[in-house]
UniProtKB/TrEMBL annotation:
Record's signal peptide: 1-19
Domain OmpA-like, residue spans: 607-728
Protein's recorded name: OmpA family protein
Keywords in alphabetical order: Membrane, Signal
Amino acid sequence: MKKSLLFLIVLFSVMTANAQSYMGYIPDNYAGVQGVLFNPASIVDSRFKTDINMFSTSSSLNNDFYGLSLFDLSKSSYDANKDGVRTPLKNNGGIVYSDVMGPSFMFNIAPKHAVAIFTRARAVVNATDINGLLYDQVKDGLDDANDFNINVGNPNMVGHTWGEIGASYAAVLWQSKQHFLKGGFTAKYLIGGVNAYAKGSDITSSFVQTNDPATTMLMTTGTLTIGSSQDIVTGDEDYVFDSNSTGFGGDFGFIYEWRPDYANYDLNNAKPTDNNFKDLNKYKLRFGLSVTDIGAISYKNSKEESYNINGAVSRQDIDDADNLGDFLEQHYGTPVTVYKNIKANLPTVMHLDADWNMYKKFYLNLNGNVSLVDKSAMGKTSSANTYILTPRYETRWFTFSLPINYMEYSGMQVGTGLRFGALFVGSSSVITNWLSKESKGADVYFGFKIPVYQKKFKDTDEDGVLDKEDDCPKIAGPAENKGCPWPDADVDTVADKDDKCPTVAGPVENKGCPWGDEDKDTVLDNVDGCPAVAGPVENKGCPWPDTDGDTVLDKDDKCPNEKGLVANFGCPENDADKDGVVDKEDECPTVPGPASNKGCPEVTQEVLKELKVQARAVFFVTGEAILKTADKGETDGRLEAIKDIIKNYPNAKFSIEGHTDNVGNAKANQKLSEARAKVVMDALIAKGVNPANLTYVGYGATKPVANNKTAKGRAENRRTEVIHVGTIYEGKL
């Protein structure tokens, strides 16, 4: 009784807890069904097919009055009362919070829709505007307290326990290239437990110590209001659960994701193994906004008593009291008592969240939790304002986080969290509690669940058929044959289903059958240019053609488009000079001539006359068989003219004749005439005249053409002439 009374009078030994559960774990993309407690939108487009919570709990306590070394509590030498560090203020305060999550699950019912069902038991105790100076005076009990006179003010306390059954729905609301928005809400059926509160108004407290319990006096002024869902504070009744204490609540939230690499997740380009990229976190930045714990529980016929606590009680009175209600009534008079329906609110909070995917599996999260409840109001449970910066490393089966948080009451704290698949555990204050000698807060969470992750499907043989549907997962094969290769009995690379000759090897081009030889010419039909007509191998199985029909095959016919003789290689008899005499009978096949002259041109008088003119213009050095060089150009021109004439008559025989005058020795003149005739013949041969067409002869002075008695006549007698001496037939003259 004494301790209860002191608790109400000075409202001490209350710590505060942040009413956010699972701090450091909630930002994880693999938080699963726990994420719905923070933002209902988190469950859609998640990394889970389903996530089943078997059991999890999160509890925390923080305060701004008393700090101690939690890790030294187990040491026998550590005295928490003496070694703890106190920070008494006129308005110390705090909360105690606990959250137990029972069987719960979330499930993606469609690519853009998800649901969750959860069960939950919660408890929260708030204390605000607690005068720590008063507690500091009576911390060791009234026996050892010194005199004091303190304005206690308006202390406020509230405690509430309740259960929840929640149903959540979330959906993708908008998706456009790099922008992605989802939203969700939760409807909760609330089941009341215990609700109690106490609030003082303008309370003062003074104490006089006489070391005699009967005369040691505690004097107070002000008003104290105490209420509870059942008379469990001032009465002696045991608590009986009231099934009529129920209510409804709700949460809602939105999440926006910026996905700059959206093109990499285009479902039009997804392969079956990609599973529509459901296993991937696609955002670079994620922003969340949610409001949770909207609602209240109605407690019917709750008792509320208001006491005017003006008066004095002795230390002996306090020691003798057994029942708080009787004590208050005995010393402060009958309270004003009312029975009414009380709506106990939920600790409504607004959550703001920003998550940055820094690099691959490394993330940095910042979230703030702002209470939306008036903490000075009587009977209102609330949450402490909290801001948390959480770097983390995250994979499907493992997460390590390092939450750094600032809480409204306990200040800066650092903790850590771990997730190993189905198990998770953590604390947002454990590192601070390990290092600090005056920790003002502590929290812990842990849980066990059954996660069923979204994952990329396997296709070991990369044939486009997933292993779970592939009858031959290690050998590539078509989907039509359940991922197995089609059989090929004759091993000709043509699957039996397409092979027209499945037991006999054959090429693909012939549908797995060997090539035939329809015309039996030993050339297979696939390379036979005439598969229905026999032909030689050399002509690709086709018979050789005879285009001109002269019985000489085109391959041997030198004139394939003109009838000819076999003896002439399929060509007609030639008449190259078109003189009507075929070449084989034409003595001059390249020069036209009459048939009477065997195809050779006849040497006419005009030709002989021209030869005479040209030959007589060829001059020699006097007395020598040497062509004159002084008029070499003239002489060479004459020889060219003679050559051109002779070459026109390839079967004519010409004689080069040399003549002299009668001056000098006849024998010498004879030799000179012969030498000069030969010189002319050699010059013509040198110019290209056929030697067979030429001969030469010298006549000396025996055939004059003029009178040797005159100089003019002798000059005319000194001459050379070209004479036509006959026709060569078949090489004979």
